[in-house]
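Propose amino acids for all 255 sites.
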């Protein structure tokens, strides 16, 4: 046990190993894992053996490499089904999709991200009448600087400017804001207006409008957005903003 942090080293190591397998998304050998975690191979082997016995990781008998086990999937499904934030937001998101016929997403700050401030989508209604098949909607998490969801969360996160100083503003399109001073100014405007836009900053042809869902401390718990082809979103921009802000207030009151 680490007396300074109060953590149990073996448990900490096992959880970090699970994170490594999750982030890699492919089978990994003991040497690869040991190198990434900067641990001895014998230590990693013992940790993997323990996790395997409980079903948290599986070893491929042909490659002798490891991947996440079905036990984690089962736990994830159970946690997801009881996810209060998602279930509270779901009917409101569905109502927005029905009203505008566009994709609606609900997100939180990704708690597993470190160097890059990211969001994690917890509910998505893709809009059955006009489903978008764009790469940006295929991912479960993304960077906050180039999305309306991310900006909405970041603007109402404590010490937002400090977060911005410590993240990488990756470039995706000619509209992506990559200058940190300009992005800080942009986030301050989002905080004033209480809504954010992604004007083709992640993908050309796709525009998103998002708003934060705030707690009593005026901090973002969630964010909700409507995404669609730029031409369609622009036609309804004012109404979309008003509807999103109204829904955000209603969700906030229920949490």
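Proposal:
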């Amino acid at each position: 046990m680490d007396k300074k942090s109060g953590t149990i080293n073996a448990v900490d190591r096992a959880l970090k190993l699970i994170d490594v397998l999750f982030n890699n998304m492919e089978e990994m050998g003991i040497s690869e894992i040991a190198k990434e975690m900067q641990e001895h191979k014998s230590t990693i082997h013992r940790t993997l053996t323990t996790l395997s016995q409980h079903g948290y990781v599986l070893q491929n008998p042909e490659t002798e490499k490891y991947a996440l086990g079905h036990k984690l999937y089962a736990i994830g499904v159970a946690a997801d089904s009881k996810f209060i934030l998602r279930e509270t937001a779901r009917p409101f998101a569905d109502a927005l999709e029905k009203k505008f016929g566009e994709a609606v997403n609900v997100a939180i700050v990704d708690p597993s991200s470190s160097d890059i401030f990211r969001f994690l989508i917890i509910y998505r209604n893709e809009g059955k009448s006009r489903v978008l098949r764009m790469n940006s909607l295929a991912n479960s998490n993304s960077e906050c600087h180039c999305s309306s969801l991310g900006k909405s969360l970041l603007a109402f996160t404590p010490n937002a400017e400090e977060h911005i100083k410590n993240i990488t503003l990756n470039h995706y399109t000619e509209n992506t804001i990559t200058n940190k001073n300009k992005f800080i100014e942009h986030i301050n405007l989002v905080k004033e207006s209480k809504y954010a836009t992604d004007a083709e900053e992640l993908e050309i042809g796709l525009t998103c409008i998002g708003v934060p869902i705030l707690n009593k401390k005026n901090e973002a718990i969630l964010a909700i957005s409507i995404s669609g082809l730029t031409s369609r979103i622009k036609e309804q921009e004012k109404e979309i903003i008003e509807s999103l802000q109204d829904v955000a207030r209603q969700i906030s009151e229920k949490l």
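The first helix runs from residue 9 to 24. Residues 131-141 have pLDDT under 50 and may be disordered.
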